[in-house]
């Protein structure tokens, strides 16, 4: 019987793997799905992507766990520039994914995961990274073919982060975000977006370029703002900060 873990390399799935190793739970392979922004650019926040490639995957391989990397042939940009065929927006660009109804999940994440699952035998056991304090999500697991090691060993989300930290395997993404998601996620917090603007101007400018596309089904990047509005806001905040720093240095 094969045992696999779905892993985004966030704290819950990483802690699941650590628990399997600690308690000698069977684990044959880890499946990771990477959403791509375009053919060459990962959809992961760069700090998280570097952590996966330089730290997490080598750790698993050193421990004899095979890592399967899944990718959809469809990228974020292909989804963005797809022309809608039906509905009130037929003829327009699909454009930005919507909060709560993310088409990237549907187009770029789920298809390779479903295709991978089809290759597994029916008796395969999947470890899912759901913590002991996530009752509603846990209730959806059957506990036999899909089970949570975090629940089995009574580990909460906070415990999961601690486990990863102790092992030196907590993604740096948690320094500025509560969750790990695509850098273009419409659910990203202001902190995450400001981080992208400040630290990854190359990725930010790729999003700004999308805003210039005409005939979009939706103009807003997230529930409240267009990406150019966010750009103006962050630019103004930076100018304010520079002014403050300037005054401070003069006074000093
Ligand atoms: S992290 Fe955000 S953008 Fe990425 S698939 Fe999930 S909801 Fe969509």
Q: Give the name of the CATH architecture.
A: 3-Layer(aba) Sandwich
- Please report the number of helical segments: 10
Structural class: alpha/beta
Going across the major beta sheet, what is the strand order? Answer: 3-2-1-4-5
> Share of helix among residues?
40-55%
* The CATH class: Alpha Beta
Characteristic terms for this protein:
single chain; 252 residues; alpha/beta; Rossmann fold; five-stranded parallel sheet; 10 helices; binds iron/sulfur cluster
Give a description of the structure.
With 252 residues, this protein is of the alpha/beta class. It has one domain: Rossmann fold, CATH 3.40.50. The protein contains 10 helices and 5 strands; from the N terminus they run βαβαβααβαβααααα. It has helices spanning 11-23, 46-62, 76-80, 103-118, 135-138, 149-152, 157-166, 190-199, 201-211, 227-251, and strands at 3-6, 29-33, 66-70, 125-127, 146-147. A 5-stranded parallel β-sheet has the order 3-2-1-4-5. α2 (46-62) links the parallel β2 and β3 (66-70). α1 (11-23) crosses α7. The model has no long low-confidence stretch (mean pLDDT 95).
Compact description:
With 252 residues, the chain is α/β, with parallel strands linked by helices.
SSE map:
Blueprint: E1 3-6, H1 11-23, E2 29-33, H2 46-62, E3 66-70, H3 76-80, H4 103-118, E4 125-127, H5 135-138, E5 146-147, H6 149-152, H7 157-166, H8 190-199, H9 201-211, H10 227-251
Parallel strand pairs: 1-2, 1-4, 2-3, 4-5
Helix pairs in contact: 1-7
Bound molecules: iron/sulfur cluster (SF4).
């Amino acid at each position: 019987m094969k045992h696999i873990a779905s892993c985004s390399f966030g704290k819950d799935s990483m802690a699941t793997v650590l628990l399997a190793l600690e308690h000698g739970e069977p684990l044959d392979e880890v499946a990771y799905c990477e959403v791509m922004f375009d053919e060459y650019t990962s959809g992961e926040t760069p700090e998280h992507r570097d952590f996966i490639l330089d730290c997490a995957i080598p750790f698993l391989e050193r421990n004899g766990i095979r890592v399967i990397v899944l990718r959809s042939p469809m990228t974020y940009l292909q989804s963005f520039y797809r022309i809608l065929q039906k509905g009130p927006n037929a003829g327009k660009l699909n454009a930005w994914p919507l909060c709560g109804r993310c088409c990237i999940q549907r187009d770029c994440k789920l298809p390779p995961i479903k295709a991978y699952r089809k290759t597994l035998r029916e008796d395969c056991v999947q470890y899912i990274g759901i913590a002991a304090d996530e009752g509603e999500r846990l209730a959806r697991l059957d506990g036999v073919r899909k089970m949570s090691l975090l629940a089995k060993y009574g580990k909460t989300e906070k415990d999961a982060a601690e486990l990863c930290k102790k092992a030196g395997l907590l993604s740096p993404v948690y320094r500025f975000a509560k969750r790990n998601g695509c850098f273009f996620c419409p659910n990203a917090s202001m902190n995450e977006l400001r981080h992208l603007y400040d630290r990854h101007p190359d990725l930010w400018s790729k999003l700004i370029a999308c805003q210039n596309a005409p005939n979009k089904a939706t103009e807003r990047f997230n529930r409240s703002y267009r990406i150019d509005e966010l750009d103006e806001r962050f630019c103004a905040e930076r100018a304010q900060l520079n002014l403050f720093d300037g005054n401070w240095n003069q006074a000093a």
